[in-house]
């Protein structure tokens, strides 16, 4: 299989790379320090059509595919992971569930504004006792007189409390059945909750180690009432829907990881060629040169992994294994490259104005978000025919 980019994809990659270098990178340190989401940059991304890349033109999108979305995410992540994850989560976790499972009316209502970047949507899965273990979900939704009444909390939800957030899709327990062995199986259902709905409270943003400009909040639902038609997909299919959402999201997330690893590589190469010690560039030292060679190898492997998964996704082929492989390889590449780049920079590597320092802080979440390293290993093991977890 070849992964050569089409002329249109090369043009998109180059345009986003130029935008990242000339618009995003110069502002990254300022917004990281202020911990603010740069709405003017998001607006420009909307005008470029980045939020609408994988959606049809008739719904306000660009009519491109998932590879194109991943190309854009990777280029942004080179210089600012927060901006990249705002796009990745806005499309993959926010808009895509509506596109994949929504009714025609729901698509017509939400996709155009999300595709244009005028609004953001969030995906409310994680709770204090639920995330990797969806069976731990405690948020409930009960039908009452044609409305869902929702109670519960969510945490670590990206794009959930920004000035342009308009929608959160949540998973909630809508019923229970007792198995023959006496155990209880929860019925999980996905429901659309518009921002500003009475009883829906966005709690104060987290004080995070990294991703400082990414919008992340806990959410609280107290007798929140939304129409029955806000059901997303079929009742009781929430588990299958969010598994599909996470599988697809991991492909774009892997591209984000690759971009972070690439950004560290580029910074390390620049510094190794320009920093002189004992009368010659530090890159002349074999240890530095070999370290950078390993960094390049990691980027190469990570990029091939996400390209493989994205091509399979676009072709309608099974891609669960490849998505987890890409996410695992990419996240470890980003973390390893961030560590190595910081070491190459020495004291300068721990100065916050240095992009490498930001990557060092940001990259740890890549081994946790959208499925931890341990979850990816479990998925891979199961796809290979092993249980993947103790029973």
Descriptive notes:
The protein has 391 residues and is an alpha+beta fold. The protein has three domains: 7-119, Butyryl-Coa Dehydrogenase, subunit A, domain 1 (Orthogonal Bundle), CATH 1.10.540; 122-236, Butyryl-CoA Dehydrogenase, subunit A, domain 2 (Beta Barrel); 240-383, Butyryl-CoA Dehydrogenase, subunit A, domain 3. The protein has ten helices and ten strands. It has helices at residues 7-34, 39-47, 66-77, 81-101, 104-115, 238-274, 286-314, 320-345, 355-362, 373-383; strands at 120-124, 140-144, 147-158, 165-178, 184-194, 200-202, 216-227, 231-232, 276-277, 280-281. The strands form three sheets. The chain has a four-stranded mixed beta sheet, with helices on one face. A four-stranded antiparallel beta sheet has the order 2-3-7-6, with helices on one face. Strands 9-10 form a two-stranded antiparallel sheet. Strand 2 (140-144) and strand 3 form a beta hairpin. It is globular, with a radius of gyration of 21 Å. The model has no long low-confidence stretch (mean pLDDT 95).
Describe the structure concisely for a colleague.
With 391 residues, this protein is an alpha+beta fold. It has three domains: 7-119, Acyl-CoA dehydrogenase/oxidase, N-terminal domain (Butyryl-Coa Dehydrogenase, subunit A, domain 1); 122-236, Butyryl-CoA Dehydrogenase, subunit A, domain 2 (Beta Barrel); 240-383, Butyryl-CoA Dehydrogenase, subunit A, domain 3.
């Amino acid at each position: 299989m070849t992964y050569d980019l089409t002329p249109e994809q090369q043009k998109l990659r180059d345009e986003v790379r130029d935008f990242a270098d000339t618009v995003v990178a110069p502002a990254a340190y300022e917004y990281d320090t202020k911990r603010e989401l740069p709405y003017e940059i998001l607006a420009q991304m909307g005008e470029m059509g980045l939020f609408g890349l994988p959606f049809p033109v008739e719904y306000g999108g660009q009519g491109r595919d998932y590879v194109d979305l991943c190309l854009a995410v990777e280029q942004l992540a080179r210089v600012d992971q927060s901006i990249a994850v705002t796009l990745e989560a806005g499309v993959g976790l926010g808009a895509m569930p509506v596109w994949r499972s929504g009714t025609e009316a729901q698509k017509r209502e939400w996709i155009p504004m999300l595709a244009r970047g005028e609004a953001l949507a969030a995906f409310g899965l994680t709770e204090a006792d639920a995330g990797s273990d969806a069976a731990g979900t405690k948020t409930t939704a009960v039908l009452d007189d044609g409305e869902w009444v929702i109670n519960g909390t969510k945490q670590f939800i990206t794009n959930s409390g920004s000035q342009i957030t308009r929608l959160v899709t949540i998973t909630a327990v809508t019923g229970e059945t007792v198995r023959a062995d006496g155990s209880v199986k929860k019925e999980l259902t996905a429901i659309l909750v518009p921002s500003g709905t009475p009883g829906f409270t966005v709690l104060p943003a987290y004080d995070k180690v990294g991703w400082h400009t990414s919008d992340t909040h806990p959410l609280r639902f107290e007798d929140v009432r939304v129409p029955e038609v806000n059901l997303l997909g079929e009742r009781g299919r929430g588990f299958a829907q969010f598994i599909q959402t996470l599988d697809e999201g991991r492909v774009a997330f892997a591209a984000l990881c690759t971009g972070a690893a690439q950004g560290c590589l580029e910074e390390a190469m620049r510094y190794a060629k320009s920093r002189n010690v004992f009368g010659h560039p530090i890159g002349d030292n074999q240890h530095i040169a070999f370290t950078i060679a390993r960094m390049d190898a990691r980027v190469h492997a990570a990029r091939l992994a996400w390209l493989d998964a994205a091509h399979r996704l676009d072709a309608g082929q099974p891609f669960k294994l490849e998505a987890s492989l890409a996410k695992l390889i990419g996240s470890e590449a980003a973390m390893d490259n961030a560590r190595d780049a910081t070491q190459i920079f020495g004291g300068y590597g721990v100065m916050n104005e240095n992009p490498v320092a930001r990557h060092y802080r940001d990259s740890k979440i890549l081994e946790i978000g959208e499925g931890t390293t341990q979850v990816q290993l479990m998925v891979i093991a199961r796809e290979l025919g092993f249980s993947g977890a103790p029973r």
